[in-house]
Amino acid sequence: MKIYARVFVILLCLLFAFPILYSPVYYFLCRAGVYEYDNVGNVIEVEKVYDEDHPFSGALNGFEEFKRTVRDIYINYLPAYVETTFAVKEIKTAVNAPFVKWLTSIGDELFKKTMNK
Q: For residue 26, which of 60, 74, 62 has the smallest C-alpha distance?
């Protein structure tokens, strides 16, 4: 294997390992109060809650809470997630603004034409 291929594989592994390792660390630092997390409104809830009469309800509910925590960590605590979410929202609004303005003007014209008849 050539040195360039090895460097490429190493860089690719580091690229994928960074968010995998960064997200849990950032989550626990936010929970400890070291960092303050900007909440974007993604609420991850437990998918299924087992009743108390189920024989393994404690273990199953604990596993469901673990799954919720993992989903929360890898959705809400990814590096630059909040900034990317807000930037995409702003870009989408800016791109759609002329079209929305055009549709609104067409609707206003149709409304005025129907009211004048």
A: 74
Summarize pLDDT for 3-31 with one digit per residue, the tens: 888 899 999 999 989 888 988 998 889 88
- Please state, in angstroms and rounded to a whole number, the distance separating the CA atoms of residues 46 and 62: 10
Taking each helix axis as running N to C, give the angle between helix 3-32 and helix 57-76, from 0 to 180 degrees, rounded to the nearest 10.
Answer: 120
**In the chain, which ranges are continuous DSSP H helix?**
3-32, 57-76, 81-116
Residues 6+ apart with CB under 8 A from 49: 61, 64
Considering the domain architecture, whether residues 66 and 109 belong to the same structural domain is answered as no
Same domain, 89 and 70: no
